[in-house]
Amino acid sequence: MAAFEFVALDANGKQRKGILEADNAKQVRQQLRDKGWTPMSVEYTEQKKDTSTGLKKLFARGISIPDLALFTRQLATLIAAGLPVEECLKAVAEQTEKKRIKGMVLEIRARVLEGHSLAASLNEFDYAFPKLYRATVAAGEHAGHLDLVLNRLADHTENSSKSQREIKTAAIYPIILCIVAISIVAALLTFVVPSIVDVFVKNGQELPTLTKVMISLSNGLQAYGLYMLLFIVGGGILFGLRLQRPEFRYKWHGLLLRVPFLGKMIKGFNTARFASTLAILNSSGVHLVESMRIATQVMGNLVIKERLEQATQQVSEGGSLKNALTETRIFPPMMLHMIASGEASGELDQMLERTANMQESDLQNTVTALVRMFEPIMLLVMGGVVMLIVMAIMMPILNMNDMLKL
């Protein structure tokens, strides 16, 4: 069976859209007629995919982290209840209200009904399901514990979604505050300062140094503000294009790691992600070396990725995980000691998961503290700048009052 997308008119003449499963389009039309609907169009969902793999991956939309977590949790719950995989997929497809995800799930079910494994069916949608996800599902199928593996994946995805949501929520206020502050200062320099100070200039009054500086800034902003904005936007676009080149991106990532505080944050984020991914894969039955290869692919920093690839090569040649990770010089001592303890006690999975949770908790606390510190600092900076502008306007007025008294 396959998934077909239809457009039909119901008995009241209202247009209806949806997705149905059938062996061919003729059966879909018959199903619609049985419901009293008039078929307008029936299309096989794969017809809407580009025949070019490159174009398909370029324009295809993936699944958001919350949707992926919900899909995984529902599938795990149904499989744990003893239902066949194809029935579980059908139930999940009926549960979702998003047509695009529903069509994707039904396509996966169609491949399962053809005899493919769930992991192999997910490979057709590699743009929606990460390599970590598909490798873990394959390991769960091979080990016969698909429900447990899916529950672990759901926990991992939900935790990632929660962390991203908390960081984004915490960053919204500082970003808005920064934009408002820049807008207010730009408006004051562009409209307020020139109109007020121009009165004193016409009277031939000698202006204080601070006022002259503000006038120069105001004139520069009015004359070159648009060019400055275009320069910033153009520079950002050019920088983004340069980042597409692996050589430049590698150098940029290396530079970021050398920045005192930022480098530590990047290392912490990547090491926590590596340990968490490695724990999930290894506990699901994936060989340690293969788990390291997959976990290395999810690293965002090219320099860290290269060092972890070298560590993977050392482990594949018989080296210990702790020694290989020590030579990367990116893992904190606490993580290395816990990994060494896990190797010695045979509880590597638990230690990896524990150290990943510890690292992620520390990072989240650090980011939250930084965001909270940024708010008062930004208020102070904004207040200081506005105070300077007000002083630049008030000083000529005070000088004029002093002259009148004399």
Description:
This protein is mostly helical and 406 residues long. Among the domains are: 2-48; 58-158, Receptor-associated Protein; 255-360, Receptor-associated Protein. It is built from 16 helices and 3 strands. The chain has a 3-stranded antiparallel sheet. Helix 11 runs antiparallel to helix 16 (348-405) and helix 12 packs antiparallel against helix 13. It starts with a strand and ends with a helix. Mean pLDDT is 80; it is low at 46-59.
Task: Give the secondary structure arrangement, pairings included.
Elements: E1 2-9, E2 15-22, H1 25-34, E3 38-44, H2 53-59, H3 65-80, H4 85-95, H5 99-113, H6 118-122, H7 131-143, H8 146-202, H9 209-243, H10 246-258, H11 260-283, H12 288-297, H13 302-316, H14 321-326, H15 333-345, H16 348-405
Antiparallel strand pairs: 1-2, 1-3
Please give a quick description of this structure:
This protein has 16 helices and three strands. About 3% of the residues have low confidence.
Number of helices: 16
Strand order across the largest sheet: 2-1-3
Question: Distance N terminus to C terminus?
Answer: 98 Å
- Indicate the CATH class of the domain at 255-360: Mainly Alpha
User: How much is the average pLDDT?
Assistant: 80
Shape: flat
Low-confidence stretches: 46-59
**Strand composition percent:** 5-15%
Q: How would you characterize the largest beta sheet?
A: 3 strands, antiparallel
Q: Name the structural class.
A: mainly alpha
